[in-house]
């Protein structure tokens, strides 16, 4: 893969992770029938992802665990602040489940990418 494409793909993976998180949450609460609802649920967390991507830690090495931790922190902090601001509530149970779910998704794809990269370096060369 062309290394110049990695940051763009990583950003897309982060945003997809947030949309998956929002979709699963909406499905689990029987709210899955509205695309606008999905966008409304995902948007605060997606804005947090974008804010995290503005930092040099994420841009310099977007597939690392460190970048994943920064993206997780950004998505959670911005997402919760916006949710609290718009809905005037942030149940502790939601905060815990959302943080764990986003951690699994945002750190999970990075872990899988690291395993694949490691396995590729272990394969004998085809040349």
Radius of gyration: 16 Å
The dominant shape is elongated
Mean pLDDT: 93
- Report low-confidence residues grouped into runs of 5 or more: none
- Hey, roughly how much beta strand do the residues contain? under 5%
Q: How are helices and strands ordered from N to C?
A: HHHHH
Helix content, binned percent: over 70%
Kindly state the number of beta strands. Answer: 0
Query: What characterizes the major β-sheet?
Result: none
Number of discrete domains: 1
Please state the structural category: mainly alpha
So how many helices? 5
User: What is the first-to-last residue Cα distance?
Assistant: 17 Å
What this model shows, in words?
The structure is a single chain. The chain has one domain. Helices cover 80% and strands 0% of the residues. It is built from five helices and no strands. The radius of gyration is 16 Å and the shape is elongated. The mean pLDDT is 93.
Topology:
Blueprint lengths: L5 H23 L6 H19 L2 H5 L4 H23 L4 H31 L5
Helix pairs in contact: 1-2, 1-5, 2-4, 4-5
């Amino acid at each position: 893969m062309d290394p110049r494409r990695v940051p763009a793909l990583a950003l897309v993976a982060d945003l997809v992770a947030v949309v998956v998180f929002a979709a699963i949450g909406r499905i689990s609460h029987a709210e899955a029938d509205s695309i606008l609802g999905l966008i409304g649920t995902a948007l605060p967390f997606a804005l947090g992802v974008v804010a995290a991507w503005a930092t040099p830690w994420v841009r310099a090495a977007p597939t690392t665990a460190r970048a994943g931790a920064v993206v997780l922190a950004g998505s959670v902090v911005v997402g919760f602040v916006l949710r609290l601001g718009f809905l005037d509530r942030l149940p502790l149970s939601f905060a815990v489940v959302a943080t764990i779910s986003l951690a699994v998704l945002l750190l999970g794809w990075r872990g899988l990418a690291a395993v694949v990269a490691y396995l590729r370096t272990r394969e004998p060369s085809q040349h």
